[in-house]
Specification:
Layout: H1 9-22, H2 26-33, H3 37-45, H4 53-62, H5 67-71, H6 78-82, E1 93-98, H7 102-105, E2 118-121, E3 130-133, E4 148-152, E5 162-167, E6 174-181, E7 184-188, E8 197-198, E9 203-214, E10 216-218, E11 221-223, E12 237-240, H8 244-247
Parallel strand pairs: 1-3
Antiparallel strand pairs: 1-2, 3-4, 4-9, 5-6, 5-9, 6-7, 7-8, 9-12, 10-11
Length: about 250
């Protein structure tokens, strides 16, 4: 049966409850499920009395329910009533894009209103997270110049993490791999043209790398993973933190 001829009051109520529980908008649900935004809007408002199975199925799958549960023929599973419905859903968060001097003051004295640019990330980061743009090639090949680095100040830095560090007395931060030997901190550039240096002055670790976004340029324009024709161009590569065993491979 390709269509369900039934009143949609139950569908509207359940769909809105699921969306509210997850914290997702009609626009984002449409993007995640590939179902047209107007279709989802009509379902949520009860304007349609003839929803198609082809539209209901991806929505039900997104919320980890079946179609009968989505339209109200069956009760929702008890475990869904108390927790998040889709463990794989990650909402987008807007974070400030700072320059390497502003980062020194973030978040203690620099206000969000003083930041000209923000970016969005789906990474699971704290409210104090920020982004910076790589200014040089000291971290090649993993983090080339102009890569956008998503940094979380709330993550405690551990040995072999990639961190943003402020060496007191300097007017800019640094982005390096942290090598910790007891009380000593060494900053390691990945580019072998530069040397590992022991930190000999007071310092503050401003945050730990959570995600990096690398843009490639083709025909004079930037290409991102959000392009409709991403497979025809070089997309943004996402790089996440490595485990200790993976990190050792860079030595």
């Amino acid at each position: 049966m390709s269509e369900l001829n039934r009143p949609t009051s139950a569908l509207s109520r359940i769909l809105k409850a699921l969306m509210h529980k997850v914290g997702i908008t009609v626009t984002e649900l449409a993007r995640q499920t590939k179902v047209g935004q107007p279709v989802i809007h009509r379902m949520a408002t009860g304007e349609t009395d003839n929803p198609k199975v082809g539209s209901l199925s991806p929505i039900a799958k997104f919320f980890n329910v079946n179609i009968s549960q989505l339209i109200g023929d069956e009760p929702l599973p008890e475990e869904l009533m108390s927790g998040s419905y889709n463990p794989y859903y990650r909402s987008w968060k807007k974070i400030p894009l700072l320059n390497w001097m502003q980062t020194i003051a973030w978040p203690e004295t620099l206000l969000t209103s003083e930041v000209a640019t923000c970016i969005s990330t789906e990474a699971n980061v704290s409210e104090k997270a920020f982004a910076i743009r790589m200014e040089d090639n000291t971290m090649l090949p993993l983090y080339p110049k102009d890569s956008i680095l998503i940094i979380d100040p709330e993550l405690p830095a551990q040995d072999k993490d990639f961190v943003v560090v402020h060496l007191h007395g300097h007017n800019k931060v640094q982005f390096k791999q942290a090598l910790m030997d007891g009380p000593d901190l060494y900053l390691k550039p990945l580019n072998t043209d530069f040397e590992i240096k022991r930190v000999e002055t007071p310092y503050t670790i401003k945050g730990v790398l959570v995600q990096s976004l690398t843009e490639y340029h083709q025909d004079g324009r930037a290409v991102t993973q959000y392009d409709m024709n991403a497979q025809e161009h070089a997309p943004i590569k996402k790089q996440r933190l490595r485990s200790d065993s993976e990190s050792e491979s860079i030595y």
